[in-house]
UniProtKB/TrEMBL annotation:
[4Fe-4S] cluster 1 binds at C23, C27, C30. Pathway: Cofactor biosynthesis; molybdopterin biosynthesis. This is GTP 3',8-cyclase. Catalyzes the cyclization of GTP to (8S)-3',8-cyclo-7,8-dihydroguanosine 5'-triphosphate. It comes from Desulfuribacillus stibiiarsenatis. Signal peptide: none annotated. Keywords: 4Fe-4S, GTP-binding, Iron, Iron-sulfur, Lyase, Metal-binding, Molybdenum cofactor biosynthesis, Nucleotide-binding, S-adenosyl-L-methionine. GO terms for molecular function: 4 iron, 4 sulfur cluster binding; cyclic pyranopterin monophosphate synthase activity; GTP 3',8'-cyclase activity; GTP binding; metal ion binding; S-adenosyl-L-methionine binding. S-adenosyl-L-methionine binds at Y29, G70, S121, M192. The gene is moaA. It catalyses: GTP + AH2 + S-adenosyl-L-methionine = (8S)-3',8-cyclo-7,8-dihydroguanosine 5'-triphosphate + 5'-deoxyadenosine + L-methionine + A + H(+).
Amino acid sequence: MNTLVDKFGRKHDYMRIAVTDRCNLRCQYCMPEEGVKSLDHLNILSFEEILSVVKVAAKLGVRKIRLTGGEPLVRKDLESLIQMIHAVPGIEDIAMTTNAIFLADRIDALKAAGLSRVNISLDSLNEDRFRLMTRGGELKKVIQGIEKAIEKGLNPVKVNAVVIKGFNEDEIADFIRWTIHLPIQMRFIEYMPIGDSLVWKDGYYPLEEVRKIAESIAPVMDVVGVRGNGPASVFKLAGAEGTIGIIHPVSQHFCSSCNRLRLTADGKLKPCLFWQNEVDIRSYISDEEQLTNVFREVLNLKEEKHQMTEEQMSQDKTVRKMSQIGG
């Protein structure tokens, strides 16, 4: 079977697909307050075009798909796309990253269509602080989304919190205690200096402190074999229902084991979140042979590692905002 292996020997079996660049929130590290100029509808990949890309990717060994945005649930009839992807031979897992504002109302249809699991972005459990971070989001709707995802058996339900010094590091213990009675994977993610995230130039917080805080609450134990674990190192409080994950994209990058490609909402295939390198695939979508060649071309563009820890990060190599890439 054909596989997607780059020049550094990394096998790629995971693709993140941004289904829209639009979002119902304006999170401060993701986009400016006024938002970003939305793509014209005609420039957004149709479900049929996305499906064509997924079919080729699956033949090349891609097994996992994650739908992102913007906010994927602002894309009309997303359930139909999930159902289409679910039917593609070789695709084993369909996940979605969401802010969960609309999740509770649509969870039944999403699961019935074939959604396997969700990652929910939540950086504060304080209602006022959450509203400040998201510029208007309603915390209770996110909590309802998390509860519904657990109730409907999506597994695992991951909650992602970006830890920002001077903003929410005082809530780490509260998030950790959440895992005592909730069967979630609470994931703490290192703050990445990309695009509008530079609003907090001194926002870095060492995530080694997370484990220390957990140990002050209860004994901890490492956990292995967690489904969809990805780059996270996972542990749990003794006797807890849930687990705790730590992701270091900057200080302890996982580039050497990176297995992902990214497809933007306007049809650009990207080998890395950080670098500008990308290839417009729209003109190749109807030709399977050409599209296969483009996948291999994109792999050849992939760098050995990102440079978010180096001097160059201040130059903003991404050009696009985080919301336009899909994270």
